[in-house]
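Quick one, tokens below. Sequence please?
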């Protein structure tokens, strides 16, 4: 079911949990325990990217792209400052230090990303692929608007 303005918010509260991360190179897995956190319900949109103070409902807006990791952390710091929050990243040229005590915006860790995406499911998808993702079957050639496919169990 596509989202509506009533059920799409800028952030979702993700509960604590444990996610299994797999290292394909070593064929090993490890459990990572996570504390509760918040994450954006959609990717950052082009509108949010160009105006970090705008965190309004982005349904149908195009995602910001292409974006490098360094551009993303700079954006997080800028959006934090606009929101009156302490920036998370101390950036010195190509050296980046994460201040885990800061309350600003940041990128999710690998474990947080996996936990948020899986939303309590164990498989590679949380529903039929055509309902949850844009695929070759949709015959699209460019990024599509955010929040136009079925959200997962955490409303992402």
């Amino acid at each position: 079911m596509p989202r509506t303005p009533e059920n799409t918010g800028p952030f979702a509260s993700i509960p604590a949990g444990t996610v299994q991360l797999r290292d394909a190179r070593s064929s090993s897995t490890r459990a990572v325990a996570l504390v509760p956190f918040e994450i954006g319900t959609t990717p950052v949109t082009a509108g949010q990217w160009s105006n970090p103070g705008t965190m309004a409902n982005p349904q149908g807006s195009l995602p910001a792209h292409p974006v490098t990791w360094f551009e993303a952390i700079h954006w997080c710091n800028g959006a934090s400052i606009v929101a009156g929050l302490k920036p998370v990243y101390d950036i010195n040229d190509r050296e980046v230090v994460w201040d885990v005590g800061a309350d600003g915006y940041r990128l999710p860790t690998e474990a947080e990303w996996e936990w948020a995406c899986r939303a309590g499911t164990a498989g590679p998808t949380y529903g039929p692929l055509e309902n949850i993702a844009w695929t070759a079957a949709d015959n699209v050639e460019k990024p599509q608007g955010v929040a136009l496919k079925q959200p997962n169990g955490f409303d992402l």
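The mean pLDDT is 89. The helical segments are 46-50, 69-82, 110-118, 129-132.
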